[in-house]
């Protein structure tokens, strides 16, 4: 797979991870605003399952941490791919520059 294609793929994954993290944070803040006596439900496929509010919040915190860790990893990979692409481009420019000097 070419570096440009990999870079586009990583950028797409970064967008997805950011959205997922943001969704989890918003859901968590909305749940925390509810009174503790509120019955909460979790979507499981096409059905809903009753689950304690604290348990749902804990799950969202875990998911958010995992998403952020993945986001950081993808950011590092993006920086590496950008550097690799820049180095390849610079090498090609140098090669073209030197070959035209030799011919001229």
Automatic annotation (TrEMBL):
<feature type="coiled-coil region">
    <location>
        <begin position="57"/>
        <end position="91"/>
    </location>
</feature>
<dbReference type="GO" id="GO:0051082">
    <property type="term" value="F:unfolded protein binding"/>
</dbReference>
<comment type="similarity">
    <text>Belongs to the prefoldin subunit beta family.</text>
</comment>
<dbReference type="InterPro" id="IPR002777">
    <property type="entry name" value="PFD_beta-like"/>
</dbReference>
<dbReference type="Pfam" id="PF01920">
    <property type="entry name" value="Prefoldin_2"/>
</dbReference>
<protein>
    <submittedName>
        <fullName>Putative prefoldin subunit 1</fullName>
    </submittedName>
</protein>
<keyword id="KW-0143">Chaperone</keyword>
<dbReference type="GO" id="GO:0005737">
    <property type="term" value="C:cytoplasm"/>
</dbReference>
<dbReference type="GO" id="GO:0016272">
    <property type="term" value="C:prefoldin complex"/>
</dbReference>
<dbReference type="GO" id="GO:0044183">
    <property type="term" value="F:protein folding chaperone"/>
</dbReference>
<keyword id="KW-0175">Coiled coil</keyword>
<dbReference type="InterPro" id="IPR009053">
    <property type="entry name" value="Prefoldin"/>
</dbReference>
């Amino acid at each position: 797979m070419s570096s440009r294609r990999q870079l586009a793929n990583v950028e797409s994954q970064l967008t997805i991870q950011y959205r997922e993290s943001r969704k989890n944070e918003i859901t968590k803040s909305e749940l925390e605003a509810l009174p503790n006596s509120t019955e909460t439900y979790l979507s499981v496929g096409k059905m809903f399952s009753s689950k304690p509010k604290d348990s749902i919040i804990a799950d969202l915190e875990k998911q958010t941490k995992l998403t952020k860790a993945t986001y950081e990893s993808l950011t590092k990979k993006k920086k590496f791919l950008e550097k690799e692409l820049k180095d390849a481009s610079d090498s090609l420019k140098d090669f073209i520059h030197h070959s035209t000097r030799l011919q001229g």
